[in-house]
Amino acid sequence: MSRQSIGDIPLTDPPEMSPEDPDLYYKRACLYFGEQDFDLSEQDVDSVIKLSNGTIASRAWLLKSRIYTSRGDWKFSRQLLTENFNQSDAFGAQSSEQLRIIDILESRWSEAKNAERRRKFADCYRISTTLIESSPHSRRVRELHASCAFETFHLQQTGSDLTTLAKLRDASVDDFLNAARFSYFFAPEGGSSNSLKLLRECLQRFSRNVECPSLGKRFKKLDTSFVLLAELLQAEDWKGLVSYLIQTRANQTTPGFLPKFDVELSRSLSAVSFDTKQVSKRRRLLTRLLCVSAENLSLDTISLNIWCRNHGTLFRPRAAPREATLGEMAREIWGWISA
């Protein structure tokens, strides 16, 4: 059934009611384009081209070029313009302007890639941000933008880029896995629900894959451990917290929760240049839990002092404001597991 509205704009005359009217298809194509629904926009554009010639067909070719520019296929976008327009055409000026935009985008792409190679990630992020504005559905642009956003600690933007990649028409299972992992480990404010939602969408799109449901099960298992940690924290069971996090009993051969968590974290994003343990909000909280528990147990050992400093927690027994620290950690944990 045809959509009767696009966003808040009703389609009072959908093309299906007048299937030979190219103007209606063109109007709807423009509305779809404005909503960045480029696949549906292109379908209507192709109908316009098939049904018409002259002015409205020229408009359709221009819009089709813009669609492929938005997808980052600048080469094909240029080809559409050079094959269907010349300077003497009524739309020659608009075609020339679109060609100029494509030239600028290709130049900026080269600049962004060079910045990435030189590890000038701030420059890469800034330049690729301008590319996103004109080519929001370009896979290579999104991947570059996500990478440089992560390297410059723009974590919210990284998560947005990874989620967008999972929504593209050529998305793969890996795109969903990457977006879900990032949401869980680096942007947990929405709880596990955002990650699990992405994994459900992955299963709907790739019904036979096993990776997405497997990752969902591992996330739920991690959540169970976070629930236990929250309960130990509320009970102020410092010895239980230390034992559960790093497994201190001599007769136990299985690792504690912290090294198990690190194994999952190491799978999340392996190509970044910095220590993901310092960036993951969940991992930082586990570090604080361990160091505050050791503080309350007066475990003032040299190795623990060094470990807590190296992981961003200044460990001074009995020195930190106890209630504020515990309250902050408790709010974070319960916020994640209850969302």
From TrEMBL:
Gene Ontology biological process terms from the UniProt entry: protein folding in endoplasmic reticulum
Region: Disordered, residue numbers: 1-20
GO molecular function: misfolded protein binding; protein-folding chaperone binding
Cross-referenced InterPro entries: DnaJ_C3_Co-chaperones (IPR051727), TPR-like_helical_dom_sf (IPR011990)
Entry GO terms, CC: endoplasmic reticulum
Domain of life the protein comes from: Eukaryota
Name of this chain's protein: TPR-like protein
UniProt organism field: Sanghuangporus baumii
